[in-house]
Design a protein that fits this description.
Monomer. By secondary structure, this protein is an alpha/beta fold. The chain contains 15 helices and 14 strands. The protein folds into two domains: about 5-170, Rossmann fold (3-Layer(aba) Sandwich); about 180-355, Rossmann fold. The longest helix has 15 residues, at about 165-180. Bound molecules: adenosine-5'-diphosphate and magnesium ion (MG).
């Protein structure tokens, strides 16, 4: 995979930089979680310091800002440490490159408004990619979180411009492939949360590559249901049978909870017995990969399992890798984020990578 390290002559070059600035915004218009923005700074600084003219592109889905970056520019300025010019539409990028970036002028980055305002983006439309790439010398993808999507700014754009990975993608790929490839002794995978269709493939891929897989959340509910347990009114996936096809549910390495916190006939957290047996395993581990809360952690009454597992992981001497929007929120609430060796910027993309799938955005960068 070619990375920005391979771009040695960037002076005056025009670079299209795909990032992930899809942040949640609160009702005061303030960015709630800036982790993924700050992660972009290293690559942006590198390109600017090499003399490149950078136009940043991203999508944003928050409705409260009308799915637009317009009102967020001052905050981006502070978070990134650069003044950011704002370009409203793709059709204005060409004139921006010509008018504001004549050769020799001091580089100042610009941000194009929400890519998904353009129909072609999510259709992976080559015509849109051509329009987007017009006038640029290089394309740099640093948006790992969208690499599992066939989108124009992630996939087909690499057919239009010479394509390179930024530092975020380089690090994600290195850390996550380490997690897959490191010897299985002492390696444990903890999988919880909902959206089992994205999680079961990880279990499948890691079963032979790890010592234990500890499950919680709705994923565990699905497994328990298929094992024949009465789940009451607990949340389970309707298609749990199909989801679990080919997975040996009796495999002794695959752990499911044995006791629960139940409310209103619903399993909403793992019980103390399960929690302590998971904590014992965690304390012995050499490598831990975690995605997905153990219960309905948003409600403090059902957060104990998730919180105690998070604390046990944080306290362990293992290499600790973690990701997923809700998992990050749960750990962040405890102030333990910096105890992890690596926090992935990708939820769905991380799970797809850990499932052994080929990600379109990485294929576009010729990652094997
Ligand atoms: P992540 O974003 O970290 O990948 P998910 O989105 O897959 O995690 O799952 C998190 C969601 O799963 C949370 O909203 C949490 O409340 C929910 N959840 C976990 N366990 C249960 C449960 N037993 N019953 C209902 N919801 C649950
Ligand atoms: Mg989530």
């Amino acid at each position: 995979m070619k990375t920005v390290r391979d771009l040695t002559d960037l002076k005056g070059k025009k670079v299209l930089l795909r990032v992930d600035f899809d942040v949640p915004v609160d009702d005061k218009g303030e960015i709630q979680e800036s982790f993924r923005i700050k992660k972009q700074k290293e690559t942006l600084d590198h390109l600017i310091n090499q003399g490149a003219h950078v136009v940043i592109v991203s999508h944003i889905s928050d409705e409260s800002v009308g799915k637009s970056f317009a009102s967020l520019i001052p905050q981006l300025h502070v978070l990134l440490g650069h003044e950011i010019n704002f370009i409203k539409t793709v059709s204005e990028v060409g004139s921006y490159l010509e008018r504001y970036l004549p050769a020799g002028r001091q580089a100042q980055p610009a941000l194009l408004d929400n890519l998904r305002q353009n129909e072609g983006e999510e259709k992976n439309d080559p015509e849109f990619a051509k329009q987007l790439g017009e006038g640029f010398d290089y394309y740099v993808n640093n948006a790992f979180a969208v690499c599992h999507r066939e989108n124009a700014s992630v996939s087909v754009i690499a057919k239009i411009l010479p394509a390179y990975a930024g530092f975020v993608i380089e690090e994600e790929v290195n850390r996550l492939s380490d997690a897959i490839n490191v010897s299985k002794e002492g390696k444990i995978i903890i999988i919880g949360g909902a959206k089992a269709s994205t999680k079961v493939p990880v279990i499948r891929h890691f079963l032979d590559k790890s010592e234990y897989i500890l499950t919680g959340g709705v994923v565990a509910n699905d497994i328990l249901k298929e094992k024949g347990q009465d789940m009451g009114s607990s949340v389970v996936d309707e298609n749990s049978k199909e989801l679990l096809v080919g997975l040996d549910l009796q495999d002794p390495r695959l752990f499911t909870p044995t006791d629960f916190i139940v409310f209103d006939n619903k399993i909403l957290d793992i019980g103390d017995g399960t929690m302590h047996s998971y904590m014992d395993i965690i304390s012995q581990a050499k490598m831990i990969v975690w995605n997905g809360p153990m219960g309905l952690f948003e409600n403090q009454a059902f957060a104990k399992g998730t919180d105690e597992i998070a604390k046990a992981i944080a306290a362990s001497s293992a290499v600790k890798i973690m990701g997923g929007g809700d998992t990050i929120a749960a750990v962040n609430r405890l102030g333990l984020l910096d105890q992890f060796d690596f926090v992935s910027t990708g939820g769905g993309a991380m799970l797809a990578f850990l499932s052994g799938k080929k990600l379109p955005g990485l294929v576009a960068l010729e990652y094997e």
